[in-house]
Amino acid sequence: MLLPLLLLSLAQVPQPDGGGLKPGTLPAKWISGGPSCVEEPDWQVHEYNDNLFIIRQSGCTHYEKPFLYLIFGKDKAALIDTGAGKNEVARIVDTTIARWLKRNNRESIQLVVTHSHGHGDHTAGDAQFKERKDTTLVAANLPEIQKAFNIVDWPNTPGKLDLGGRVLDALPIPGHHTVDVAYYDALTGLVFSGDTLYPGRLYVSNWAEYEKSISRLVKFLDGKPVAHILGAHVEQALTPYLDYPVRTSYQPREHALELSRSTLLELQLGLATLNGKPARVAYRDFTIWPNIR
Q1: By CB atoms within 10 Å of each CB, which of 24, 44, 80, 127 scores lowest?
Q2: Shortest CA distance to 274 belongs to which of 185, 203, 194, 207?
């Protein structure tokens, strides 16, 4: 237990003064597929703060109900993931950008569309951005990711995306997928962890790579304040050790989206305890779930 406690102390700030982070708020409740799909919008757009928006796709449109993140700098905005199934993600993104432009007395801003990883429930809307004005689409494949973020040595070195006055660190964390990327926003202290860590079933396709990636993420965050870890789904129920089954659209009592750095350390310790032997283990806020044939 000594190592996780030591690592936890390295991530804290000297005084309870906000840590120099730009704060934000999270909603009391997210849309989650009902109970009436007639009344629920296809997307929920939540303004975390004036330059960062969290977008959730309704379970009425796709049971995966993924979370997307739209982050604004002075020169560019970054969209992480494009949703699941047949959707109109470009419409909701354009509407949100238009609101931001009006508020900031701007006519346009460059958009970089990137991903947490390459699974279909995170890339389904990509085609809507291929011909979009002022837009760069970074496909979820290794060559494009390395080029876009200047990652020289995948997966050992992090890259960066400069939005203008705001830099996102892009850390390779393969294991769930072959090209998983976590993003750290130093301005807010938010970590965007995709499907690698979220309240739900942490599917592991490559056990050895996943273990290394979790350790790499822990090491990268040493000394950095972490306000929240925000993943791409919620599958866990409010009841500890209980999840919603696969293909559940309506989740009236779901776990909060946000996790903490201590959850990441718990995951690292849990993997170490298994000693390289993949096994399914349920924790209070997530389940380690080997997906290895």
Answers
A1: 127
A2: 207
Show Cβ contacts of residue 122 under 8 Å, excluding neighbours closer than 6 positions.
Answer: 66, 81, 82, 83, 84, 115, 116, 140, 194, 195, 232
Residues in the chain: 293
> What tokens were used for 86?
């047949």
Q: What is residue 164's three-state secondary structure?
A: coil
CB atoms within 10 A of CB 246: 9
pLDDT band for position 13 (50/70/90)? confident
**Of 248, 245, 251, 229, the residue nearest 287 (C-alpha):** 245
| Mean pLDDT taken over the chain | 95
Mean pLDDT across the stretch 252-272? 98
Instruction: Record the pTM.
Output: 0.96
Amino acid at site 61: T
Q: Which of 284, 197, 214, 184 is nearest to 243 (CA)?
A: 284
- CB-based contact 187:257 (threshold 8 Å): no
Fold designation for 30-195+230-255:
Metallo-beta-lactamase; Chain A (3.60.15)
Q: Two tokens at 227?
A: 């306000």
Measured in degrees and rounded to the nearest 5, phi and psi for residue 69 equal -130, 130
Question: Nearest 5°: CA angle at 47, between 46 and 50?
Answer: 170
Whether residue 132 has pLDDT greater than 70? yes
- Per-residue model confidence (pLDDT) at position 116: 98
